[in-house]
Amino acid sequence: MKLHAFLMCIMNYLLLTNQEEQKSEVKQTSWSSPDNNTYAYPDDYDVATACESHVPEFNSLALLVIYSIVFVFSLLGNSLVVFVVCSMSKGRASTDIYLMHLALADLLFCFTLPFWAVESHYGWIFGTLPCKFISSFQEASVYSGVFLLACISVDRYFAIVRATRVLSSRHLLVKGICAVVWLVSGFLSIPVAVQREDIILPGLDQPICYENLTGESSDQWRVGLRVLRHTLGFFLPLVVMAFCYGWTVVTLFSMRSQQKHKAMRVILAVVLAFIFCWLPYNVTVLIDTLFRGGSLEETCDIRYTVEALLEVTKIIAFLHCMVNPVLYAFIGEKFRNELLTALYKQGIISKKLWVSYRKGSAASVLSVRSRNTSISV
C-alpha cells in the first residue's frame, strides 16, 4: 500500500516534467497518442470537432528508472521464491507448486521490462523479431499469472470447503494443470506475436513495438483482442476466485480454526494484491475499449483523461510482478523458515543464526501442519 501511495505521489513528477508540452492534431481518420495507440474515427467525423489538446506525456527517463527498479526487485524476489520451493525436501504442498509457477510467470514478465524501459526513452531499437517474442512473453505471463491464481483458489476450495486431502500423489496432477496453463497462455499470446512489429506511427518520431494493423477491420481486431483479454485474462478468473474464496472464508469462520486461518492469510493477500494492481488498468482499458467500439461517446477532455489513466494504471499493474515475494516474506512464516533452512543448507548463514531463529518460532514450526498448507503460511 505504501508503495502505491509513493507511486501516486511521483505521478506529478512524471507528468510533463522533462518534455515540452506538445499539441496533437486529430485528423479526420486517426489520432496517434504517445501511449502507442492509433484511434480510428468514423468517416463522417466532423473535422471541426477534432481534438486539439495536450497529449499527456511522462518523463521517459523516470519511466526507464521505474521499470529498471521493478525489474531488479522482481528478479531477486521471485528467484528467491523458486529457490525456496525447489529446496523443500519434504512437505511441498500443491499450493507451493502453484506459487512457484506464479513466481516463474512473474519472472517471465519482469524479463520484458528492460525492453519496455528502453523503448520508453529511446524508442524500440531491437527490431521486429524481438518485438514479437517480448510481446508474446509478456502476454503469456499475464495470462498464466491470473490462471494460476484461479487454480490456487480452486485448490483451496477443495482442500478447505470440501475437506479434500491434498496428497503427494496429486502433485503429478497439479504439475499437469500447470503445464496446461502454460500451453493455453502461450496459445492466447499468438495473436499478439503475429501482429506486433517494429513500426513508426504517424505523429511519432521514434519506432515502437506495436500491432501493425491496416484496413477497415483493424479497429475491430483490436477491440476483439481486448475483449478476449478482459474476459479470459481477468474477469472470468476473477469470478472463479470470488466464488471459491467466498465459500472458503465462510467455511473458515465457521470452523474457528486458527491454523487454517493462517493458511489463508497470504493466499488472500496475493489475490487482493493482484486485484489492486490489475483491476484499475483493466477497468481503464475496458473504458477505452468501449470508446473505441463506439459504445460510449467521448470528448477531447475524456480522451486526455483516459490516456493519462492508461499510463498511470499500467505502471501500477507492472508493479505487481514484484509484490508477491514481499507478501511471502512479511506474512508467510513457513516461507521464512524454509528460506533460512535453505540458506543454512547452502552454507550462506551459520548454524547458530539458523537455530536461534528456529527456536524463536519453534511453536509454529513444530506444530502439526497438514499438507494443505503452503509456503505462504
UniProtKB/TrEMBL annotation:
It is found in: Cell membrane. It comes from Xiphophorus maculatus (Southern platyfish). Its main location: membrane. One of its GO terms (molecular function) is C-C chemokine receptor activity. SUPFAM superfamilies: Family A G protein-coupled receptor-like (SSF81321). Interacts with IL8. Interacts with GNAI2. Receptor for interleukin-8 which is a powerful neutrophil chemotactic factor. Binding of IL-8 to the receptor causes activation of neutrophils. This response is mediated via a G-protein that activates a phosphatidylinositol-calcium second messenger system. Binds to IL-8 with high affinity. Also binds with high affinity to CXCL3, GRO/MGSA and NAP-2. GO terms for biological process: calcium-mediated signaling; defense response to bacterium; immune response; inflammatory response to wounding; leukocyte migration involved in inflammatory response; neutrophil activation; neutrophil chemotaxis; positive regulation of cytosolic calcium ion concentration. Coiled coil: none annotated. Belongs to the G-protein coupled receptor 1 family. This is C-X-C chemokine receptor type 2.
